[in-house]
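Retro notes (design track)

What went well: tokenization of the new backbones is finally stable.
What didn't: we kept losing track of which sequence belonged to which structure.
Fix going forward: every design gets posted as structure first, then sequence, in one message. First example under the new rule, 300 residues:
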């Protein structure tokens, strides 16, 4: 017969072995997550742990959550870096022209009036650019202090179209309100108006003389829909998504004016309200931009 201590020793050894295996099984994913957090803290934004946690348990779900967080952080940080680079590039041009104007005044004081007019234009351009950058930065960070209100999208767009018609006359174009529905959206009216106005101004910018910009406000599947369509040359298919990126300028007939922030602000405003914005080329020519915002009702 076995000695009395042998079963106890065997049970103790089995318990220690199972405990060690269980501790290793639980500690391995924790160590992987700890190393991943350390790598992220050191700036290695490409760090992912999903491949290390194919376990089908809570640790696996935690690993996938970490990967989603890391991917979002990488996207945001890279976007901020790209924005900073683009901002520095955009600011350099007007600052350079200001320096040239100052140099001209120092060399020839008689040209002071012309140099002052140039400097005034560049200061206004800098002021407008900084305002656009601040607006875009607030939208990208999801911080906007304006309170939420119940707004009539149709009424707002009708007012924008009325103002845009004066600009269209100077270019020999027409802005037509082809469909108008009273659609109510709970949001920030100033940002919604800004988004629609930016798209309409962009359409006017590329609309050929004698053509029209068509504006529609409707309701579809729980969304307020603002659709702006021009009859210009359109955009190459591989650039349709890029037009909503900051500082992207469409070059049509040599026109590259503006800051390249209007459509980026429109996208930010739409996404802040839980909506979306898309652009598509029309088969018979021209570009159509559609803004969709969540809405509770529509009264025709």
């Amino acid at each position: 017969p076995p000695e009395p201590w042998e079963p106890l020793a065997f049970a103790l050894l089995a318990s220690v072995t199972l405990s060690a295996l269980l501790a290793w099984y639980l500690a391995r994913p924790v160590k992987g997550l700890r190393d991943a957090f350390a790598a992220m803290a050191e700036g290695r934004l490409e760090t992912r742990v999903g491949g290390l946690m194919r376990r089908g348990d809570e640790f696996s779900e935690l690993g996938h959550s970490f990967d989603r967080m890391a991917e979002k952080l990488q996207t945001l940080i890279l976007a901020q870096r790209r924005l900073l680079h683009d901002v520095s590039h955009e600011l350099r041009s007007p600052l350079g022209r200001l320096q040239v104007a100052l140099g001209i005044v120092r060399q020839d004081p008689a040209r002071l009036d012309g140099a002052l007019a140039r400097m005034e234009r560049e200061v206004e351009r800098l002021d407008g650019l900084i305002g656009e950058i601040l607006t875009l930065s607030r939208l990208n960070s999801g911080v906007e202090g304006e309170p939420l209100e119940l707004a009539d999208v149709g009424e707002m767009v009708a007012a924008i179209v009325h103002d845009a018609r004066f600009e269209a006359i100077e270019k020999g174009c027409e802005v037509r309100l082809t469909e108008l529905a009273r659609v109510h959206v709970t949001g920030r009216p100033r940002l919604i108006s800004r988004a629609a106005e930016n798209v309409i101004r962009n359409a006017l910018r590329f609309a050929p003389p004698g053509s029209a910009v068509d504006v529609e406000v409707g309701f579809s599947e729980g969304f307020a829909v603002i659709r702006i369509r021009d009859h210009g040359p359109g955009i190459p298919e591989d650039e349709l998504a890029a037009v909503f990126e900051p500082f992207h300028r469409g070059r049509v007939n040599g026109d590259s004016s503006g800051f390249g922030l209007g459509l980026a602000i429109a996208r930010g405003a739409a996404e802040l309200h839980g909506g979306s914005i898309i652009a598509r080329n029309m088969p018979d020519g021209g570009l159509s931009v559609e803004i969709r915002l969540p809405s509770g009702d529509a009264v025709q």
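Added context from the reviewer: Helices lie at 5-41, 58-107, 112-141, 153-171, 189-206, 262-272.
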